Amino acid sequence: MLTSLFLCGALGVLLVPVRSQLISVCIEEDEDLRVDCRIKPNPNKITSYEFSWSSGTKESLINTNVSGSAAEVQFRDKSEVVELDPYGYRMTLKGFTNTLPHNTTYMCKISGQVQNINLEKEQLQPCSAVSQFLKTSWSWIVPLLIFLYHTHC
User: Fold this and answer.
1) 79 CB-near residues (< 8 Å, 6+ apart)
2) Which of 24, 50, 80, 98 places its Cα 20 to 30 Å from the Cα of 145?
3) C-beta neighbour count of 119 within 10 angstroms
4) 86: number of CA atoms within 13 Å, CB side?
5) What distance, in Å, lies between the first and last C-alpha atoms of the chain?
6) pLDDT tens for residues 114-139?
């Protein structure tokens, strides 16, 4: 009983900081770059988005629906954005995988809320369901909970 109580307390402490990433970057099977941005939009506001990256001191706007802003010329016909369910946006960039900067900060902004992730080119993973599952913080908690349940119950 005391062991179970201790175990539940330890898992509770571990679960407090756990949250899934709001931005993820991966390479699709056809070598396109994919950026998923899962920021929950503010209610009662028109949802706007911006996708950009920066390397060094230069930030480049890749795609946006913000009035008065425009993507850089090199990205205009190469990127597309689709809405994700239940919220968020996915940006796909074609033809830039081989020319990505070595160290890049990928950014997304939805309705004024910004998320970013810094990745080296070698850290980009394929966009498979398994690799996306393994990126989430919960993926290691669920098997641990099942294992602990079966060993102590």
Assistant:
1) 51, 62, 63, 71, 91, 92, 93, 94
2) 24
3) 18
4) 1
5) 10
6) 999 999 999 999 997 554 444 444 45
Q: Where are the beta strands (DSSP E) in the chain?
A: 23-27, 33-37, 49-55, 58-64, 79-83, 89-93, 103-110, 113-120, 125-126
- In the numeric block, the tokens 């939805």 are attached to 110
pLDDT at 19 over 60: no
Q: What is the pTM of this model?
A: 0.72
Q: What is the pLDDT of residues 100-119, one digit of tens each?
A: 888 999 999 999 999 999 99
d(CA 96, CA 55): 14
Give me the sheet containing 58-64, strands edge to edge: 58-64, 49-55, 103-110, 113-120
